[in-house]
C-alpha cells in the first residue's frame, strides 16, 4: 500500500477531522493508498497537544507554515485556514511541490482564486483539490448516478442549498467568519457556497447569469471583551441562476439558498432536480432517504421513497444495513482525494473532490452575485470573467 505523508496547516476543527479520518483508515476495504500525518502547523499553541497525544506518526509541530513546507518528509498538505490566507499559503504549498487539499472557497475573492489557479497551472505535477464532503453520502451518490446516466431527461429546474441557524442568536460573539477582512466580501457565499455548487459544477452545467438577493441580518455582535463591533458580512443569500445543460443545449433555472440564519436548521444540505423523465431529491435532515419520481408519459406521478444504507463510493467494513454520517462523509472525501492522487481519476464522475476549475466557477458565480446585489439586476457570468 502506498503511503502519502501529510502536513496539516491549520489545526482547528477540520484539521482534527482529517486526523480522525486518517486514524480510522482501516475502515476502508479496497484503498491501496493511505495518509500518514507527520507534521502540523498552527499559530495557536493550545491546539498542538491534542495532535501530539492523538497522532503517533507526528514528527513535526511548528507555528510557521514555511517550516512545514520545507520539510522533505511532507508530500501533501491539507490547508484549513481563514479565507484571507488562502492565496499566500496555497500558492506557497503548490510552489513547494506539495499536493494540496485546500478548504473552500479557494481564495478570499476572485483575484486570489485566479492567483491560486495560475500557481497550479505552473505546477501540473502537483495534485490540487478543494474540500467538499456533500456528495459522498450514499443517497447523494445514487442521485448523482441518475444525473450521470441522463435519467432526468430534459431538466426542468434544480434547487440546492446549505442552511444552518448558528448565527440566529444576536449575542453570539463575533468570529473570523463574520469579519469582512478575514472572510471577505462574499460572506455566506464564500463560507457555504461551494457545498451547494459542488454537484452543479461536477455535472458540467453552464452558468449563464445570476440574480442575487443578499441579506445582512445581524449588523453587530459582541466582541468578547464587553463591547460590540460591526458584523459586515452577508448572513443569507438567495440566488436564481439561468443555466444551460450541455447535453441538450436547453436552459433551466437553478435556485441556490445559502443561509447562516435559517431558523430551525441545524446543518442542512439539500439538492433537488426536476426532470421530464425522472425527478429526485435529498436532504441531510433525513440522510438515508432518497426520493425519486420516475415518469412515463400518460402515467401516474408519484414520489417514491428509498431508505439507503451504508453503501458509499469507497467500500468499508460497515455493512449496508447500518447508517452513514458526517464523519463517514469526511472519510469518503479523503479516500476520493487519495484515490485520484494515486490513480489519476476518480472511480466515478461524482466520486471525486472539487477541482480548481470547479472552484473557479464558484468564484465567478459569487462575483456575479455581489454585482447583482449591488446593482439590483441580473448579471451575466461573462461579466464575471477575469
CATH superfamily of the largest domain: Dihydrodipicolinate Reductase, domain 2
CATH class of the largest domain, anyone?
Alpha Beta
Mean pLDDT: 96
Query: Describe the biggest sheet?
Result: 9 strands, mixed
How large is the radius of gyration? 21 Å
Strands, count: 17
Broad shape: globular
Q: What is the share of helical residues? A: 25-40%
Order of helix and strand elements from N to C terminus: EHEHEHEHEHEHEHHEEEEEEEEEHHE
Distance between the termini: 42 Å
Question: What strand order characterises the main sheet?
Answer: 16-15-14-13-7-12-11-8-17
Q: Strand share of the residues? A: 25-35%
Q: Which structural class should the secondary elements be placed in?
A: alpha/beta
Question: Poorly predicted ranges (pLDDT <50, ≥5 residues)?
Answer: none
Provide a concise account of the structure shown.
The protein has 386 residues and is α/β, with parallel strands linked by helices. It is built from 10 helices and 17 strands.
